[in-house]
Amino acid sequence: MKASELYAPTLRESPAEAELTSHKLMFRAGLIRKAAGGIYSYLPLGWRTMKKIMQIIREEMDAKGGQEIMMPITQPAELWRESGRWAVYGDEMMRMKDRHGREFCLGPTHEEMITSLIRNEVRSYKQLPLMLYQIQNKYRDEIRPRFGLMRSREFVMKDLYSFDKDVDGMNVSYQKMYDAYDRIFTRCGLKFRPVEADNGAIGGGHSHEFTVLAPSGESNIAYCESCDYAASDEKAELKVIKAAPEEMKPLEKVETPNAHTIELVKDFLNVPIEKTIKAVAFQDDDGRLILAFVRGDHEVNEIKVLNAVEGALHLHMAEESAISAAGGSAGFMSPIGIKDGTVIVVDSTVMEMYNAVAGANEPDKHFINVNPRRDFDESKIIVADIRLVREGDPCPNCGAPLKMTRGIEVGQVFTLGQKYAKALGATFLDENGKETVFEMGCYGIGVGRTMAAAIEQNNDENGIIWNRAIAPFEVVVVPINAKNNDQLEYATKLYEELKNAGVDALLDDRKERAGVKFNDCDLIGYPIRVTVGPKTLESGDVEIKIRKSGEVLTFKREEFLEKICSKLKEL
RNA sequence: CGGGGCAUGGCUCAGUUUGGCAGAGCACCUGCCUUGGGAGCAGGGGGUCGCAGGUUCAAAUCCUGUUGCUCCGACCA
Could you tell me the domains of chain A? Predict the structure, then answer.
């Protein structure tokens, strides 16, 4: 490919709306262009990288027995009604109607589609296990698309679905995918970590998110340096902290004027924050009031609360009116004396506190000497781990202090169990001729997000630094002055030798000044640049520059091919 | 959804307060010159100032409405 014919519009400046480094660089290097909020076109360079990532994914999926298929983007509403998700998915689903008024959506995911695809075809355990995957556009009407390809509304995703005859089989499939993901992201040159994740409303089974470590990432990860534990903050388990036992003093109600925050309460009563109990009020979609209690210095993990409460699908902050209707008072709540019918979730650590301070369910009053074991009616409360992890909390595995970091979730593997197969009536006959529901798993990778994450992790002030495996081109050959025929000829020769050796090379034959070309090369981030100028022409040597390290190397003409190829392997 | 901000040539923005010829830099085209890190000179093309109404002799500028984008918060791959 000649750069003079390549459509790669680079920019000196980036549009005002791009804030993330990767977004700016993708824009400036001519990888993508925006069509609408969260919707992008991929230009040749960007698409080349996308294709390379997809190829790596394909190879690893196929190696594990995956078979590629293609399913429709447009999906009929009936399918989603069958699984119950037409209503559940909410505003995030892009919906539309055809001319007859029939309802469709643009697929946000394909569990329903694939389950319906196989349910009438796969009839016997002999056809299992089965792993089918596709790489395709998906649609989610994000509340707030941002960061370019990181959080977009239309995005390319690989998703594989596994079908097994039993849980053991499903776990084998899960492990295969886990291993494949490990290989995929390693091959892409990413620094990542598989972290234990919450599998949300789907429940049961296990789930890991493959997270690229980057400070700009949107997810918080707790990890342990002494063992290999890593979990998203939503998931990270926490052990009960037992306070030193004390003699239980009598419960007492005291005046705490205007002390509606924990800070004010602890100062007013002059108690350590570890001896206070904090309340956070939620409501679910049915309007049920859900009160969550944690120790004053802890934060509530909303996901854990959601998982602890049976039947709740979403939580939002409670309305003031709902709190007073339950006999509570915002800022002064406790499980003691709240009306029945209120869902009360108490963090396990709270149950181990002695003589603590909690709200008295009336304005400007708190209880002191609250002893949850004695004062809470345990038949009416849910006790669970509902606190949010923070740096320094003990690792649930080995007890060492946990570290926190941020990451970009590029893939997720999880077991679905029978949820969708059951809802859609997908069954087969097992060895005993018994009708059995499939055990499923699903495994996604955000392709565009992976590209963005790679850039986010590998760049400098001059531009992108691609890993060789996913670079749009591996090597660029630059004649400094393309109007000089000797240089152009020499460069073309080197370029052709590289091509013939199977190297993905680009010839920058543009009639631009050297500075312009060099800056473009750095911005786009080709791993190796071969520079052809008067110096090399005279010496007959070949000069290369490594993008990542900036080092300039000179090779003898006859050994340059071999040297470049071995250099490439290191990149 | 709540709260801010923005919308002027391909990009970054000035001009709006106080109404009076639509501007700059970069990019683009032509020519000269130049070619080891975004050169220089000369000439040139391109904008119904987001859209729709209104006020006015006159609107990018003032008023009303509307759409899009964007940032912060509550949500998610």
Answer: 17-236+404-455 (3.30.930.10), 252-384 (3.90.960.10), 473-570 (3.40.50.800)
Q: Which nucleotides of B are covered by protein (CB under 7 A)?
A: 1, 11-13, 25-27, 34-39, 68-77
Protein CA at A17 to nucleotide C1' at B59, angstroms: 29
The amino acid occupying position A46 is: G
CA distances from A488 to A313, A525, A541 (A): 65, 22, 15
Q: What is the mean pLDDT of residues A427-437?
A: 96
Flag whether the ipTM exceeds 0.85. yes
CA pair distance A442, A159, nearest whole angstrom: 7
pLDDT tens digit string along A195-239?
988 765 554 578 899 999 888 888 888 888 898 888 888 888 888
* Nucleotide with C1' nearest the A37 CA: B69
**Residue lying closest to nucleotide B77, CA to C1':** A446
Nucleotide nearest to A143 (CA to C1'): B75
CA A322 → C1' B65, Å? 37
What the block records as the tokens of A567 is: 């250099």
Q: Max CA-CA distance within chain A?
A: 96
**Is the bond preceding A472 in cis, omega lying within 30 degrees of 0?**
no
Residues A377 and A266 sit within 8 Å (Cβ to Cβ):
no
